[in-house]
Amino acid sequence: MAAMAVVVLRGPRGHFRWRVPTCTRGVRGAASPAGGQQDFDLLVIGGGSGGLACAKEAAQLGKKVAVTDYVEPSPQGTRWGLGGTCVNVGCIPKKLMHQAALLGDMIRDAHHYGWEVAQPVQNKMAEAVQNHVKSLNWGHRVQLQDRKVKYFNIKASFVDKHTVCGVTKSGKETLLSADHIVIATGGRPKYPTHIEGASEYGITNVALECAGFLTGIGLDTTVMMRSIPLRGFDQQMSSLVTEHMESHGTRFLKGCVPSRIEKLPAGQLQVTWDDHASGKEGTGIFDTVLWAIGKDAQNLVSLEQGYSPSFPPFISWVHHSAGS
Ligand SMILES: Cc1cc2nc3c(=O)[nH]c(=O)nc-3n(C[C@H](O)[C@H](O)[C@H](O)COP(=O)(O)OP(=O)(O)OC[C@H]3O[C@@H](n4cnc5c(N)ncnc54)[C@H](O)[C@@H]3O)c2cc1C
């Protein structure tokens, strides 16, 4: 059985760094002089749930709209398509994997209800989830096209209050200008930079939700917590959640803080941690280590350069969803 460690603690600042672009006027799509005609009425930076909703609404109202979206690869080199966190690595794949776990439970129960299910059952969940996500990526592109919203797969940063510089994966630069610019760049999960091996060998996501469906699809899953589960939430509800998970096989290591991760010759990961209750060091061997220690807002280069888009026409946009 594969083993999975989900680690929950608070760490220092995240891992992602923006390359400073060198955009100058004169490249393709060069912006018009300040005060002159802009390329677009509205430019949205970030093609996630918030950015896409905003762009589509504005286009519906007859505005000339563009969206820029660019996914900075994770330390493991993972990228994904249009649609942002929810579609690619958040709500949608999570719900599909929960559903896969629930269906697995039902298949196991089915014979008690008179169903004969052929054994062994094959699980091709990862491929099915990826295919569904790709269909959503494509659907979002089509929806933008249908509404005449121009899509640029570029990483945007501010040049001035009406102009952004976009850089493609291959380094090609484009200047885009707009009367109004919306920042809808979301956030990315953090890696602990002080723990040896954390970003080389770890991946990221959310803790208890992932641990729940990973246990549900039959993986031996351990959640390591520095303090208490779901800190900041109603602790009576939190206990109900963790007791339910424990009764289904999820293991919880409370009061433990990981100190290093080493890759073993066979490819598995050896995690070493400090157990604050016993004062001893613990170790365990896992196939995968997933960090769930919070998120950092995605930064736009201009902020680092000292150009602060903190006055109109900048608007930041947040994602609101119908819930989990
Ligand atoms: C595992 C998991 C499960 C979740 N489940 C739920 C749920 O059930 N219900 C719920 O409501 N929420 C859920 N969420 C949260 C939800 O996914 C996010 O709140 C939501 O996706 C945020 O949307 P956004 O548009 O603000 O940002 P994002 O979706 O993150 O989109 C921002 C986009 O902008 C891009 N970008 C960033 N900087 C630039 C730049 N400079 N130039 C161009 N592009 C840029 C990013 O790469 C990204 O594609 C979940 C999240 C996770 C991780």
Structure description:
The chain is α/β, with parallel strands linked by helices. 28% of the residues lie in helices and 27% in strands. It contains eight helices and 17 strands. It has helices at residues 49-60, 84-89, 91-110, 125-146, 198-201, 207-216, 235-247, 301-305, and strands spanning 3-8, 40-45, 65-68, 150-152, 155-160, 163-167, 173-183, 187-189, 202-204, 220-225, 251-254, 256-263, 269-275, 280-286, 288-291, 295-297, 314-316. Strand 10, helix 7 and strand 11 (251-254) form a beta-alpha-beta unit. The radius of gyration is 23 Å and the shape is globular. The structure holds flavin-adenine dinucleotide. Flavin-adenine dinucleotide binds at residues 45-51, 68-71, 84-86, 89-91, 94, 155-156, 184-186, 205-206, 298, 300, 318-319, 321, 323-324.
Question: Can you tag this structure with a few keywords?
Answer:
5-stranded parallel β-sheet, 28% helix, 324 residues, 7-stranded mixed β-sheet, 17 strands, globular, FAD, alpha/beta, binds flavin-adenine dinucleotide
